[in-house]
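> forwarded from #structure-qc
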């Protein structure tokens, strides 16, 4: 029995040691996640001032689209149907670092593409002149846009302008879209992003 007891004791020590090691690893991982969250939230609260606007030019259905956008945004590969896409990448990130999952982008879309929720908004606006169940809506039909709206989809915020069009299909409408994580909503960073985005929308021109 003495040998058996010794074996049981040895097994218990190994098991307890393994459990302790796993707990230590888990605690370190949780701490790393918490540290990253606190760093991100600090960046959300204290973003750098917008950089001066720079010109961007692209093609939209064969026409030339031009706009001005803060130098905080740099061109990237874009998404399906985007004529041009620019990613938030300020020179002075400070404590805020954004991975691909939390990337913030401004894109000019040539058609709606896979953004079914925006196509539904366009259909509702055309049929009723307004939108329901959205975070924000403003009718802009007296200018170059039909409306702008803000919606939440799968933990992301889509804040967009819909350009006027005589297209029959809502998927053929062009949009200017600001996309960001819902974690940013209500922060000073969101205020900065929306200011930059609205300024970009004001400067957009399309010519042959």
């Amino acid at each position: 029995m003495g040998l058996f007891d010794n074996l049981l004791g040895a097994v218990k020590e190994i098991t307890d040691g393994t459990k302790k090691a796993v707990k230590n690893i888990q605690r370190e991982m949780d701490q790393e996640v918490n540290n990253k969250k606190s760093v991100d939230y600090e960046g959300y609260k204290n973003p750098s001032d917008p950089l001066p606007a720079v010109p961007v030019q692209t093609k939209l259905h064969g026409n030339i689209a031009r706009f001005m956008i803060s130098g905080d945004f740099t061109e990237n590969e874009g998404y399906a149907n985007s004529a041009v896409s620019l990613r938030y990448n300020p020179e002075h990130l400070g404590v805020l670092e954004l991975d691909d999952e939390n990337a913030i982008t401004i894109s000019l879309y040539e058609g709606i593409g896979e953004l079914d929720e925006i196509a539904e908004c366009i259909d509702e606006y055309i049929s009723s002149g307004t939108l329901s169940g959205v975070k924000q809506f403003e009718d802009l039909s007296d200018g170059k846009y039909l409306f702008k709206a803000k919606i939440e989809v799968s933990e992301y915020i889509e804040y967009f302008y819909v350009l006027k069009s005589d297209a029959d299909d809502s998927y053929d409408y062009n949009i200017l879209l600001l996309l960001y994580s819902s974690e940013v909503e209500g922060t000073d960073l969101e205020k900065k992003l929306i200011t930059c985005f609205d300024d970009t929308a004001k400067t957009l021109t399309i010519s042959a």
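QC bot note: Residues 64 and 207 are 5 Å apart (CA to CA). The radius of gyration is 24 Å.
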